[in-house]
Amino acid sequence: MYAQSDNSFVKVRNIIIEGNKKTKPYVILREMTIRENDSFPAKDMDSTLLHQRLNIFNIGLFNDVNLNIKNWEDDSLDIIVQVHERWTIIPLPIIKFVDRNVVEWWKQYNHDFKRLQYGALVNWGNISGRNDALQLAISFGFAQKLEVGYSIPQLNVRKKNVGLSMYFSMLRTRRIAYNTLDDKLAYMYLGSSWQQQKIEVSAQVSYRKAIYNTHYFSTGYGITAVSDTVLQANPEYFSDGNKRQQYFKIGYTFISDHRNIKAYPTQGWYLTANLTNYGLGFMKTKMTSVNFQFSKYFQWKKYQRFSTASMIKWQLSWPLKQPYNLQPIKSLGYGENLVRGYELNVLDGQHFLLFKHEFRFRVFSFQYSKLKKFKGKTAQIFRSSLAYLPLKLYLSAYFDAAYVWDNNYAFNNQYKNKWQFGYGIGLNFVTSNSNLFRIEYSVNRYLKNGVYLHFTQPI
After folding, report:
1. Same domain, 70 and 185
2. 261-272: b or e for each residue (b if 16 or more CB lie within 10 Å)?
3. In this structure, what are the phi and psi dihedrals at residue 194, rounded to the nearest 5 degrees?
4. Integer CA distances (angstroms), 389 to 6, 88, 153, 209, 310, in order
């Protein structure tokens, strides 16, 4: 502990970075709120160092980050930043189900392995040492899909405030969700014929002048074609009766991120606002969506194992008549736009309001590198990245509620235009700064219950 009781200030003489074998020093320094020759109150030493450590850890490049002081003489000192880099090239097999979650595949589709997507994924992170990343994925099975993406958050080296990302994807599938019936996706399969073929390309420019606030400007083009059978089953699939849809899109997103740990925050807050337009006002495909989300996280000061998280999200879109294939972009039931307990359901609509609240208790926090008594026996492990992978277990209790406004898809769907809510308990496993596994038991408004698995944070 370095806290002082007086009102004296200390000056940062040097900031020394160690352990960054590939990462450029300025990538790390960019995330720090203090610079060389800055001064701050000596009594705030602990909180200041912790603040810098969390900011650097949230870059996502390191398994472990530590800050220490050195050469503290009179009113000046050096800060030592020690990092342990993650693996940068990670080839992974793709073995997943195309359904929105595991329970939908297990219950609704009788765990049919024909719905399996398999292939290979290569994540090459920190290619140039500037936190840039290349992703290449190819998969087969339920659908044939190719995805290529590249991002660099600091494109301009001098000011380090402009980033760029590009994405390209191709897909074709013999099975397609052509409509929503009884508040569930209805799929169509007609043997060897292709039901949908799609190409999409997009680009995004980011502007991040300060540490916590980022502006994103995006544009993209997409073209999708479906079979005659799909249009016969749902003439409103593209809303205009055509077999082919093409669109340009533009968007703007603002994010203000003050969470202590992005993968599983226990303190701070998060705000995002987004505007996306499809069609630019002159194409046949026209839709505009606006959403706002605010999340707040509290950690109890006296009992720091306890924390709470709350979120509100409001989504609006227009016109009222919209292409069915764009429903996943702004409907409830996709990703974490979900009331827990309704994992089997999709609530298509034009607008929704979503609330989530969760209580958490940290059962344990473990990292192999902290177990000093094993260092002599397992030296090889301590020299690898495995030693720095954390494992945390949280027990949670939660309550979610939402309302979906719908004027087009209420026929044969009963859950829209009324309040829906779910509650339950769960176990959350945090395995690194980007991986999370949740197992939850949820009950919804109609007392339907089940055990559900998820791989993203709920709030």
Report:
1. no
2. bbbbbbebebbb
3. -80, 125
4. 38, 14, 24, 31, 27
**Residue 368: its pLDDT value, please?**
54
Task: Specify the CATH number for the domain of residue 418.
Answer: 2.40.160.50
pTM of the model: 0.88
Task: Compute CA distances 38 → 55, 57, 211, whole Å.
Answer: 18, 22, 17
| Contact present, 431 and 393 (Cβ < 8 Å) | no
Q: What CATH number is associated with residue 28?
A: 3.10.20.310
Whether 35 and 184 map to the same domain: the answer is no
Q: How far is CA 218 from CA 153, 249, 251, 275, 323, in A?
A: 14, 8, 5, 10, 21
**Can you read off the two tokens belonging to residue 186?**
């209805």
CB of 195 closer than 8 Å to CB of 230: yes
3-state helix/strand/coil string of 106-118 = HHHCCCCHHHEEE
Residue 143 lies in a domain: no
Please indicate, yes or no, if residue 117 is contained in any of the structural domains: no
Quick: pLDDT tens for 109-162.
888 888 888 999 999 999 999 999 999 999 998 889 999 999 999 988 788 899
